[in-house]
Amino acid sequence: MGVKYKYLFIVFLSLMPLTIRAQCTDSRRAELNKIASNVKFNYSYNVSQDRDVQFSIIISNVTPDIYVVDNRGNQYRNFENIISSQSTEFEIYSSDSNCNEMILTRSLSLPTYNTFSKLDECNNNTSYLCNIWYDTGYYDQRDFIQALKNEKKGKQSNISKNDSKVNSFNMYVFIIPGLVIIGLVVAIIIFIKKKG
After folding, report:
1. pTM here?
2. Could you tell me the CA-to-CA distances from 117 to 49, 101, 114 in Å, in that order?
3. Interval 83-130: pLDDT, tens
4. Alpha-helix residue ranges (DSSP H) falling in 38-160
C-alpha cells in the first residue's frame, strides 16, 4: 500500500506545473524606471500642397528592457515613427518577465490644426485667423468667413472676443485685490483714529 501512494504522489507531482517566479527587486525596478524615463516622444509634421497636415510621432530610446503601448493598444518595441492626427497617451512597460508591469505614463499633445486655413479666403492671406495653428474652437465655416471679413474692415472678429474676455478677467484680478487693500488701509486708519 505504501508503494502505491508513492507512485500516486510522483504522478501527482509530475502533473503539477512547477513555475518559480523570482520577485522584481527594488534595484531592478529603479533601473527600469531610469531606462523608461529616457524614452523620448517628439513629433514632426508635413504640410501638403492642399494645406493638409500629417503628424509623425517619433518614439526614441526604447531599449529591449521596455516596450511602449499607446492609448489604442499598439505596442512599440524599438525606435518608431507613428502617423497620427491626435494627441496620444503612452504607457511604458517592462519586458522583464520578473518585473512585467507598467513603469511610466507619458502623453504627447499635438498642436491644434486650423482646418479653415485651407479655405480659398485664406490663400495668400496673412491674417492670424488663417494661421494653420490658430485654434478656431467650435466655430463653423460661416462664422470664420464672417470673422475674416470683419477683420478686413478693421472690426473686431467674433473669434477674438474670447481674447477680450480674458483681458477683462485679468483686469479684474488686479482691480479687486487693489480695492480690498485700499479698503483695509482706510479701515485701519479709521480704527486707529477712534482709538487714539
Report:
1. 0.57
2. 12, 44, 6
3. 776 778 899 999 998 888 899 999 888 888 888 988 888 888 888 898
4. 141-152
